Amino acid sequence: MKSEIQQKLETLAFNRTSPFCYGCYIQAPKGICPECHSDDLMRHLNGVGVEWGTAWVIKHILQEELTAIDTDEIFEESIRQCYPEETTVGWMKFDTVELMKSQDPISWRIARDEYIDSLEQDEEIVSFDGGETYYWIHNFEDLQY
Ligand SMILES: [Zn+2]
Question: Are residues 75 and 61 both part of a single domain?
Fold first, then answer.
């Protein structure tokens, strides 16, 4: 699934950019520079810039067209669905999530990371930067290829 999306993003990055000779600073739409005949070309993305490769184009597309997941928020939501909203301690009532977070932030963080890992394993979410940012996999269906 992830490699499939990566492949699509790669294609998308290629389709949206054009080959560019940095030495001559001109576009080379045919894949060979019309001036110096080099085929060692950068990619040019209109209004954004010129760089080697497509990784930066993919990054740009992800940033512009998809919304990164707030992992804290989705974890908190899932916990709120599993436990009662309020917890009574003695005669006091507390917001369960706030109580858990404040009393054992480490346990909270570990559980959040496990939850995110499990979503990734179930192919609900995907990351292209080693877990720095996640995206919902179903969101990639909306991308214009
Ligand atoms: Zn050239």
Answer: no
Q: How many domains does the chain have?
A: 2
Do 92 and 53 fall into the same domain?
A: no
Residue 2, pLDDT score: 85
CA of 24 to the centre of ligand 1 (A): 4
Size of the chain in residues: 145
Asked whether residue 7 falls in the same domain as residue 61, the answer is yes
Q: How far is the CA of 111 from the centre of ligand 1 (A)?
A: 54
Q: Which helix (H) or strand (E) holds 94?
A: strand 92-95
Any idea what DSSP says for residue 21?
A: E
CA distance 20 to 50: 7
CA distances from residue 29 to 42, 52, 55, 61 in whole angstroms, order as listed? 11, 15, 20, 21
Distance from Cα 40 to the centre of ligand 1, integer Å: 9
Same domain? For 56 and 85 the reply is no
Instruction: Domain of residue 53: give its range.
Output: 2-65
Give 42-56 pLDDT, tens digit per residue. 999 999 999 999 999
